[in-house]
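Kindly review this protein for my students:
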Amino acid sequence: MTLPKTMKAMVTMGHGDVDQMVLHTDWPRPDPKADEVLIRVGACGLNNTDVNTRSGWYSKTVTDATTGGAFEKVGEDDPTWGGAPLTFPRIQGADVCGEIVAVGPGVDAARIGERVITDGWLRAADAPNDMNKTGYFGSERDGGFAKYTTTPSRNALAIQSDLSDAELATFSCSYSTAEGMLTRAQVTATDTVLIPGASGGVGGALVQLAKRRGARVIAMASDAKHAGVETLGPDMILPRAPDDLRTALGAEKITVVADVVGGSYWPTLIDILERGGRYTCSGAIAGPLVDLDLRIFYLRDLTFTGSTVITPEVMPNLVRYIENGDIKPALSATYPLEELREAQIAFIAKEHAGNIVVTP
C-alpha cells in the first residue's frame, strides 16, 4: 500500500482560544516506530480533555468553570491534566476509530487491515499499573485530529462491530472515564446512583454503565435534553439543578453520586448522600472550587474518590460490551475536521446532548 507523505491535520499551536487550532493540509504523516501501528483515522471524538488542555484550564491558576476560551493567566508549570507542560505544536484528539494501514518493527504485519479503537492511556510497558508513568494520547503524544496517527500497538484495540466509525469514536474517552468512576466507587446492583450532567458524553456513559451493573440510576439534565437522556434508560430524570433536591428525589436514597460537573451546586449533591455513601469525580466543568462542610463528610462516613487514570482492563472490557451490544453510542453531531473549531464551540455551549465527533 502506497501511503501519502503528508496529511491533513488540525494542529494546536499553544494554550489559548480556539484560534490556536490551525488546519494544515500538508502536515508530515507520522511513521510507526517499534511496537507502534499507523492508523488511518475514520473518525475522532471530542471530549473535555481536548478543550481543557488547549485552554490551559487544568492549571491551578485557573479557578473558573470550563469556558473553552483563553484565560487571563495560565500557570507555566501545570497547564495540563498531568500537571506538566505540554509540547507544542500538538495534534490533539484521543478517541480514534480507524484502520491499521502500517506497522512498525516488532508488530505482526497481520494487524494491517484491522479496524480499531484507541485506548488513550499510554502506559509504561514494564509497569502498566504505575499511574506516575502514564501519558495520554493527544496530549503527551500526537492524537487523532488528523488523517493518520500512530500509537503503541497495545493501545490499538481490534473491534468487530456494525457501528459506524463516528459511532465507535464516541466510546474511548467518555465511556472509559465513566467505567473508571464506577469502578472506583465500587458500584453494584445494590446502589442508587445520582448523575449530574447526564446529557453530556461522560454523563450519558455513566447512565448506561451504571445500569449495566444493575444499579438504579437517577439522571439530572436540563429539561430540553430529557428526551435524549431518556433513550439511555435511567430510572428517573430530574432537572439540572432542582431548588429542593431532597424533595425532588422523593423516597430515593442516594448511595453514589457520580459527578463531572462540580460548581456551586456541589454542596447540595453531597448533602443528599446516605450514610456510608460514595462520591466519585472525574471533572468539574461548572467550576473546580467548591464548598465542603467537613462535618457532613465525616459524620456521615462518606467516601470520596477521584478518578483519572483507569486500570488497564477497562478498555478491553468496553470493547466486549460494545461487541455484545451491552452499551450503545450517544452520537449527537458529526463535523468535518476543517470545522473542529466550530465543533468545540458547540461542545462548550452544550448545543448537543451526547458526543460530538469529527471526521477527516
